[in-house]
Design a protein that fits this description.
By secondary structure, this protein is of the alpha/beta class. The chain is built from 17 helices and 20 strands. The protein has two domains: 325 residues, FAD/NAD(P)-binding domain, CATH 3.50.50; 221 residues, no CATH class. Helix 1 packs parallel to helix 14 and helix 14 packs parallel to helix 16. The chain is globular, with a radius of gyration of 24 Å. It binds flavin-adenine dinucleotide and NADP nicotinamide-adenine-dinucleotide phosphate. Flavin-adenine dinucleotide binds next to helix 1, helix 2 and helix 14.
Length: 575
Amino acid sequence: MSTSTTNTVDAVDAIVVGAGFAGMYMLHCLRELGLSARVIEAGSGVGGTWYWNRYPGARCDVESMQYSYSFSDKLDQDWEWSEKYSPQPEILAYANHVADRYDLRRDIQFNTRVTEATFNEAANRWIVATDQGDRIDAQFCIMAVGCLSAANRPPFDGLDDFQGPVHHTGEWPHDDVDFTGLDVAVIGTGSSAIQAIPIIAAQAKSLTVFQRTPSYTVPAWNEKMDPEYERDIKEDYPAFRAKARARPTGFYFPFNMESALDATPAEREHQYEEAWARGGLPFLGSYGDLLFETDANDTIADFARTKIRAVVDDPATADLLCPDNVFGCKRLCVDTNYYQTYNQPHVTLVDVSENPIERFTTTGVVTNGIDYKVDTAVFATGFAAMTGSFDKIKITGRDGLTLAEKWRAGPRTYLGLSTVGFPNLFMITGPGSPSVLANMIPSIEQHVDWMVDCMGHMRDVGAATIEPTLTYEDDWVKHVNEVAQVSLRSTCSSWYVGANIPGRPRVFMPYIGGFPIYVNKCNEVMTNNLEGFILKGAAKTTTAPRTRWTERWRVPLDMDIISPAAIAAKRVPVV
Ligand code: FAD
Ligand code: NAP
């Protein structure tokens, strides 16, 4: 059980917002660096995503052996995952284990939301205010607020009048929600819905799924952890982690660099069948050009549609479930018995692509003039991704500039780590970094390690503030956009571009150039004396930055596959 600390702290070296995997690791490292820190967390426990997303079926879709911290081999050796893809309670238990093991909770203030963060230019310090009345003064303000942590609750007309419970997957109650004997609506068909629907269907009297856009999903073929597989990895976990880091996605899986278009139809069929049989996100690694060439993508999309039609009995329902957009353009989903669920007589799929949900009544959901009677509704409607949790905090930098104003037309950062006008404000997996396009835990660790070396260096040279220069930020934003254009991923209306929520600017937010290239760029910036940043107040400017933490992220670009040439040749399977 988590305990909560509610002491108001007046001054610390660093304030960290959020106690998910990012905030937890940041706290651990700040302590190692010898800085005092306070973490503020809105929830009552650690774990972030895995604290909030308690919906039935929630589990990771990056294999558990890779979806975990890598900073301690002892931790890696001690922890045992029970399944190939761990369920949410086990990932939350892991987060709690880490919090206990490193005694993190004594510096985390739970049940507290940061509402404002203001840079005091005279003092070169941040003043952070919370909804509990705290005012905390810190040299560094570190946003560990999460990329998928601001739930999107569409404001449907009549929702307040609806008599039944409404649960968002990303803000799921802590008590068990029992759907037995109930008529249930699920709105949305993204990753969360696809995990929850088969389990809700098994309980409910009836299930009506409201689908605006069908998703592509690949079977997980989840299974109990194979002890031999686990033993093999644990024999040399660091080597396995190193292989993973050399992948564009930051996790390891077999893939093929060939072009789908160079293969014959029979060869492709064979390749796709084999990859489908392995299942999960690595299916996108069937060929190297799937996210670059429309013709290549058509081949995998056709294959996936054939799979859907082979499972779903009713041809009209199968038609509705078949996406007609680029395969893998939106985040690929991973499922267990998703399509099979639609063969059950009490499950109905309602298409709201042409006729959106009009309103809720006291007892139902109305679309296309039909009132679907339901007792309860599940919003699997996703998140204001990447920037949503920043938007909820009034962040004011130099000269009274707010982050909301600066990012009105889309987020702008240098390396996804920091942004001009906001000295000493760091963001973990911020927009402009690989973040959600890579295995998130290494993405988090790499960012934290970089920041810790940076803060250590600032202490060494006596610098008061660090801030990127506008030129470097502009160049990075340009680069992020250019690289995105190369990928078919930039072409569809996904949450990667903010298009899932009306009114958000359309900008491809994560960095799609691949994890190792990004990591090497960060390392280069560090070793080039924090190139692109201005350090103010530094007494000893000639001291080279320390690389105690960042060193472990050095990826030889010739390792295994990934190189800038591969990107130029459009042969980089990405997930
Ligand atoms: P979060 O875990 O989102 O934590 C952020 C924390 O900040 C939250 O606890 C929140 O309460 C807190 N917070 C935010 N704003 C404030 C504020 N103003 N004041 C106080 N506290 C605040 N990634 C993968 O790589 N593989 C997966 O398999 C995978 N599966 C996922 C499944 C689901 C259902 C979801 C939603 C995401 C998944 N992700 C996955 C992405 C996942 O978000 C990351 O892997 C990772 O958990 C993010 O950690 P984080 O600490 O950066 O952010
Ligand atoms: P999502 O992928 O954004 O899906 C939200 C769904 O709600 C979409 O189908 C969307 O339709 C629909 N929707 C939104 N507003 C709607 C409206 N007004 N009317 C009707 N439908 C509406 O969100 P998510 O499923 O929560 O997943 C978000 C991300 O979290 C994933 O992409 C993934 O990165 C991560 N995740 C991972 C896992 C995992 O397997 N490990 C599980 C869950 C989540 P449109 O597509 O038309 O917008």
